Amino acid sequence: MWGLLLALATFAPAVGLGLGEPGASVLGLAPPATTEARGSARGSTPAPQSSPVQPPAGKDNGTSERHVRIRIVKKKVIMKKRKKLTHPRPMVTARPPVTTTPVGVLDLPEEQEPGCPPLGLESLQVSDSQLEASSSQSFGLGPHRGRLNIQSGLEDGDLYDGAWCAEQQDAEPWFQVDARHPTRFSGIITQGRNSVWRYDWVTSYKVQFSNDSQTWWGSRNCSSGVDAVFPANSDPETPVLNLLPEPQVARFIRLLPQTWLQGGAACLRTEILACPVSDPNDLFPKAPALGSSDPLDFRHHNYKAMRKLMKQVNEKCPNITRVYSIGKSHQGLKLYVMEMSDQPGEHELGEPEVRYVAGMHGNEALGRELLLLLMQFLCHEFLRGDPRVTRLLTETRVHLLPSMNPDGYETAFRRGSELVGWAEGRWNHQGIDLNHNFADLNTPLWEAEDDGLVPDTVPNHHLPLPTYYTLPNATVAPETRAVIEWMQRIPFVLSANLHGGMNDFSYLHTNCFEITVELSCDKFPHENELPQEWENNKEALLTYLEQVRMGITGVVRDKDTELGIADAVIAVEGINHDVTTAWGGDYWRLLTPGDYVVTASAEGYHPATRNCRVPFEEGPVPCNFHLTKTPKQRLRELLAAGAKVPPDLRRRLERLRGQKN
């Protein structure tokens, strides 16, 4: 549960808090390559014995009894430049020819729809211990790396490489998955190796099944009765789906690469499509039941379905919801926001504003669905009278933006959860990565800090947009501009981006403290996983919203008129980041429990300082200020109004002039 953990670090004054993005570093970067020095240490492990069905003539199926040598690789890093491959060579047979006749090759339809959900290699529901292989080139290319969409590091041959790869001398490689329960296997999805240095992918494979890892049978072509050969990949990244001619019930499944790219190795990443089945003999422990009891709409929603769902929530809870748009995508799709509060549509004095943003990358669908589920849940529980939700929506104004990049999502949605790949739909329709499209405010602030200019010359908050960013020809996506204007328009206090680098910008350009949340290893989980993902994140989503109550809050007022002072600066001693008041003079400063010295200041007023204590009990501590105008400010206002200067003010101004002279 990420909320409870992140809440402990939420209110630290450091700039730039955020979590890393798996795999982002491989895009377009190419450091010096490494070469490997092979170690002489060897070990041997007996491979599982098998009694296969009769293979085609002249061809062994790669499951006979033998020993497999496991190679231990030691690395010696040599700084040596190596050119990145730019054009793969054509697909050819890279092992003894397969005995296939026209009837032995699987005749597949052009369009295939998966019948069963994924077994869970990509989402890590399948553990490393469930994956085995005939051999591996190194630990970093072991079977545990044979997961769909897994990404490699920059160093070729490190511990986090981008596929399972069999040893070059392994003439009969295989990759095996233990489902641990009787399972109905219906299809396989494969990719090649993710690497910035090499091209490796399998071009065809066979499939076998077993209940004990000893006796195996193959997937056969329905018309000919011979072992089916499945066409695989023609590039490293595009997922290729093959449905089995007939689903098979077994515990183990093996992929046996038959051909692969010339000059490369038998490397693959995969996901297995499988449905659980009941065990009539009750020999295996039952798999834990996953799901949720909440009456919510657990499915993926494209733009039209998302808009319809938000409208339904608004109609069901009209007194606490409002749907509004903050702008449009490059293709003209609206960026819809669901507002939830007891007074929707208005900023209430003293009530903090919080937001969740999802879908910055269009192919990362889980955040989008979690926010759609959250708005349904809050509506349902409010109508049910749940005290926790009632208090949350009474004391807080919540804004939910489920899709910041609707154009990208539509692209990913059309491909489907298992076939969208790692990058398709990530960018907006212009090809802009919204994650890196916000202005860099960190660098100028750090440079100013190094020069000793903060905070006297350069402020430590509300940094302006750089000049280059505001030019007409600046490469700024319409989605990015819409979100920035949204930030400037509403005095947000706390935010979480369900993936993206926006948090630093938000912290430095506005009052809002924001974190980035990495939700899942699977960017686009299957629909049947959504109930469990909701249960995994529901409590965290609620708890994080409640953190806005931690710290101090108050109103800065004019001592004479009692009117709120907008843009007053709230500075906490010892924390080099200030916040400002909203247009009504109210402010919120997130602080962990402790004693603080707080100063309120505003142009034309004398600053005021007071001590504020934040207890461990829940709830913000009131810390109000009344500021007195400076004589100069009072004089300005009187002269502007055409009034006479009061005698006491005139005498005070004369004394000040005398002191100055």
Automatic annotation (TrEMBL):
The gene is CPXM1. Residues 88-103 have a biased composition (Low complexity). Residues 1-20 form the signal peptide. InterPro entries: CarboxyPept-like_regulatory (IPR008969), CARBOXYPEPT_ZN_1 (IPR057246), FA58C (IPR000421), Galactose-bd-like_sf (IPR008979), Peptidase_M14 (IPR000834), Peptidase_M14_domain (IPR050753). Pfam families: CarboxypepD_reg, F5_F8_type_C, Peptidase_M14. Residues 299-548 form the Peptidase M14 domain. GO terms for molecular function: metallocarboxypeptidase activity; zinc ion binding. The active site is at E518 (proton donor/acceptor). It comes from the Eukaryota. It comes from Callorhinus ursinus. This is Probable carboxypeptidase X1 isoform X2.
